[in-house]
Amino acid sequence: MWFKSTLGLKNLGLKTLTLRNDRSLASENFLSVIGAQRSSGFRCGLVCIAFILSNLWVEQFEFRQLAKGQDSPSPQQADTPQVNASQDQPLQEETQQESQPKDEQPKDEALKGDLLLERNEPIDDLCSGIIDNRRIYNTFVMRGRRLIGDERILDAQEMNEIIGRAPASKSIALPELEPIPRSEIHERLKRASVMVGNLYDCGRCSNLHGNIAGGVLIHEDGLVLTNYHVLEGKGDGKIKGMIAMNHLGQCFAIAEVLAASESADVALIRLASATKFEPVSLAKRRPSQLSEVIVMSHPHNEFYVVTTGLVSRFVKPTMTGDRTTWMEITAEFSGGSSGSGVFNTDGELVGLVSRIHPMFRPEEKPEGNSANSRSSKPDSVKRPEFVEQILRRCVPLESIQNLFIAP
Questions:
Q1: What CATH code would you report for 292-405?
Q2: DSSP strand E in 299-370: where?
Q3: pLDDT by residue (tens digit) across 246-275?
Q4: Domain 97-105+113-272 is classified in which CATH homologous superfamily?
Q5: Strand duo 239-245 + 341-343: pairing
Q6: C-alpha span between 243 and 294 (Å, rounded)
Q7: 97-105+113-272 with 292-405: one CATH topology?
Q8: Could you tell me the residue ranges of all domains in the chain?
Q9: For 46-58, what is the mean pLDDT?
Q10: Regarding predicted confidence, which is higher, 100 or 154?
Q11: What angle do CA 224, 228, 229 make, to 5 degrees?
């Protein structure tokens, strides 16, 4: 029985257990008593007691691990967005401490003071050079989790109430920024591209997981443009907090929604921070058809992915009942790209990623001899469909400009 208990601990992945002196002494006493007794019944009873104690030690060990932030791997996200380009499958959180940046190691003691400012130091190498997707995702989750207890962190229900009350426009003066040199465009776009998302409880484990989309800084005081649907959330209690993170791994609460339009799928938010950010400019005019555009986004937790393409057209998809004007582009994006920036070749913002419109085609009936015909599905059975083409729709510059009233 003792051998089986020890084997069970090893199967849980616990190589060593550091017990206090009194617990070690207790285990030695149990072993000596068992060896001294002749009665098999009495011996079995003691083994059962020892087995219960071993389970208690395992629970204590697991509690210590959770307190240290060493969670089990995250499951795949339960809810997958259907229409928009929001995130759908988070990566697993890293379980090894050595893979985390040193300043990310949580402590057992309760955090005090302003959670938005303490222990939120920039991680200079987080997004420089080679992008480490897992490290960025873990930074979002680990640092975001520390902010959940702060009253300024909004859950889904609170965010839905705030965004529902937001005005359609706001009187805001945007700064005039110097043109970006061509050699610096990639770096400047990266500094202006933030991650906007939430931490949610999957209901199947004790971890919180990240559902990450995008946003674009347009003011040094933390004004960010993103999609309306990125901020929306189901009021089922699973979403524990909405946060944003910059390219340096600094996490911030969303202080307020300054303006929003559900039909145009665009929102202007302000981050709760005294940090001065590095924004990009809005373009003065919308791009023409066939002009080149750049997208920097975070599809499926692949962070800071750059794709390029052309402006295809501006369209009102009235055949489906949608009278909103969209800008369609050929640059690729997918789940997790929502709210990310669409830029011209001067590094100016001309739109925001919003959604995809896949067009399906049913598989054709097989052709051939009578045997093949008999084996084919009858006409009453719906044939499988495949995606024939995807239209990629973005919030155009005009919808963004409508959020601002000239002061």
A1: 2.40.10.10
A2: 305-315, 326-329, 341-343, 349-362
A3: 999 999 999 999 999 999 999 999 999 888
A4: Trypsin-like serine proteases (2.40.10.10)
A5: unpaired
A6: 25
A7: yes
A8: 2-66, 97-105+113-272, 292-405
A9: 52
A10: 154
A11: 125
